Amino acid sequence: MATISYLDVVAMTGDLYLGGLLSVDELGLPQEFLHSDPIHPSKLQLSLYGTTMGRYLMLDVIGKGLVEASQARGAPVVVGHSELLALATKVKRPFVKLQATNQRPLGEVGDIRENSDTEFAAQLNDVQNPYIFTIFDRQNFPVAQHLPSFTECAARFDVLEPMVRVKRTLEVIQRGGE
Amino acid sequence: VAENEDRQPDVVRHEDASLDAAYNEVLRERAASGLDESQIESADIEKLHAAFVPRKQQLKLHTSANTLDPEFFSSKSFGLQSRKVSGIGFEDPQTVKLRIAPLPTRVKVRRQKLRPLKLRPVNGLSLMREQPVSRLPLPVRKLDPEMARELFRKLFEKFGKAAERCEVLAVYRGVPPAAAKSIQVEPGPGSLQFLVPGKLRGSGIGYCAVIYADPDGRIRRGIYQLSP
Fold this sequence. Notes:
By secondary structure, chain A is an alpha+beta fold.
């Protein structure tokens, strides 16, 4: 059974950082959702860390912490923005950024077209247009190993849709809805 | 003014001894620098010594200015003294001796503790289940032939031969039967939304939500297992 995780870390208003990791099954149904408490760096920390604060919080504290705490070990992680791909250097999980396109279908489900060393287009189902996969490197994301998870899931749901739920839930948490 | 004029000579006189000492010190320094007067003509020696006179005057003025009290600085006679200073030029930097307070050899070190930025993962699955899951419609023409046959069989079981008058409007894959009560179809994009009632895993595989018009033209919806 295929499992895909979705990770997003966002900077809210007032130097507030919040992250969430959703793991879904092959139907896109939530199996696990972990989120961080809002992390608010102090003025001293903001001064000492300077411009590196955002990256440090997103990668080293929230992103790494959530992925390591997840039970869905080995499942590919779809990240909310490209900056989170650098987690590949910190955690042993395959990371990918997905993007829908209006490109012509590539042919059969599972077909790919290489764009560069870190980017390729893939046909995930027979209904939608190809998706653009942006990865950290080929070692972190062996295509032949992980693409079947995406084609299996894409046969039943839009593989970008769970990320929308993550973002919506983070907004609810920021508003103090929990 | 009279009082200050009386004071000025006192100050100068008071400094005469120290000025002479400073002047002699300069001479000693010049001698120590390798100047051998025995090798110089007597007339030149006199010129040489005469060259030190303006320097002696400078030293005198400089020392006087440094030893004047604040009251003297505010007086009119200080103005006169100032003109003398500016007329001749000011001191030679080599003659200024500054007293510098020694730097402290030990400083107090204060250690500021940085609050560690730690993550405390929170299980928010119940919160996530409040977010509806969304499904895009599968175009009917894209429906797998086996799934289409199975759907017609289901409709035939329900309506008999009248099932031929049913019109399938949309099919959504991967909708678990447990979510049937919460199904909603958005009018615009035609996407279907439902809530996940509890922890489900794989219980909706093969199930599809179908929106169709029955033989009487009424819009109906149902969840059917169309594939294994």
